[in-house]
Amino acid sequence: MLAPWWLDPAPPAKVRLMRATIKQSVHDFDGALVDLDELVKDDREVQAQLTRATVLAVQARYDDAERACLSLQGKVGDAVVTGCVAPIWAIRGKVQQSLDVLRRSLSRLDARAPLRGWLEGISGEVLAWSGALDEAVVTLRRALQADPSDSYSRLLLAALLTELARPAEAVQLLASHPDRNDAELLELVMAAKAAQDPRAGALEAELVERVEASRRRGDSVHCREEARYALRLEGDGAKALSLAKQNFEVQREPADVRVLLEAALVMKERSAAAPALVWMKSTGFADPRFTSLAAAVESLP
């Protein structure tokens, strides 16, 4: 539907926003920013500013992302500004400040407010980054109660449950949602294997089919998931490290940092993890799971 405008340098604003959103979804972040930078010249383009902040954060351009979030003050409700800026503060080592502002925003929201699930999900992720994994689980369950369609919170919760040696709960959480994306299916397979669930074999076969189809298409959008698949299920550290490095060139979220550190540690290649180590030091990100990984990588000869 957008084909008539796809190469148009000056399409209508609504088309430009949709084009930017599609480019973001296929990890053409620089291409998305070309459109978003143009859109935000109009102060009324609030969604463009939010999308732009997300893209900037994925690229680890945190100063720019924070400015984009804070520029929304007075144009949208405080809860929206909080949801935009709180994860950036947490990544930059200001976890307590992030949690405080999230709690204040949640305290002002009605129990059925549409944004409650979103803010609870962000709170759960920030709590996990702080090392409070059990509290994060409780918070993510609240996020899903508020918004059962929140696949991001569901994925985070499943990963935490498996990490906390509660994989059967993760299986129950994910198996009840048949329309699983690739990341959710990967998490389900890992949980099922850890729980020795009899469905693990069939689920893994489905995942293998999806991964192979993705490779045949030359799809590089899910490099993070492919790297985790190679590391955790195929036991191919070299492939995992190659994919994690390729992925880190495009996006630099905490999950991207973690898989690069894990793969580099397995392969005992400290130099390969250098970009992730630089990210850790420059941001002040202090998730205990990450700092332990970083220390182990830095101790490699």
Describe the structure.
The protein is mostly helical and 301 residues long. Among the domains are: 1-76, Serine Threonine Protein Phosphatase 5, Tetratricopeptide repeat, CATH 1.25.40; 226-301. The protein is built from 17 helices and no strands. It has helices spanning 13-25, 29-39, 46-58, 62-70, 78-91, 95-108, 116-130, 133-146, 151-163, 167-175, 182-194, 200-217, 223-234, 237-248, 254-267, 274-283, 288-298. Helix 1 (13-25) runs antiparallel to helix 2 and helix 14 runs antiparallel to helix 15. The longest helix is centred in the C-terminal third of the chain and has 18 residues, at 200-217.
CATH topology of the domain at 1-76: Serine Threonine Protein Phosphatase 5, Tetratricopeptide repeat
Estimated share of beta-strand residues: under 5%
Unreliable sequence segments:
none
- CATH architecture group name of the domain at 1-76: Alpha Horseshoe
Map the helices and strands.
Layout: H1 13-25, H2 29-39, H3 46-58, H4 62-70, H5 78-91, H6 95-108, H7 116-130, H8 133-146, H9 151-163, H10 167-175, H11 182-194, H12 200-217, H13 223-234, H14 237-248, H15 254-267, H16 274-283, H17 288-298
Summarize this structure briefly.
With 301 residues, this protein is an all-alpha fold.
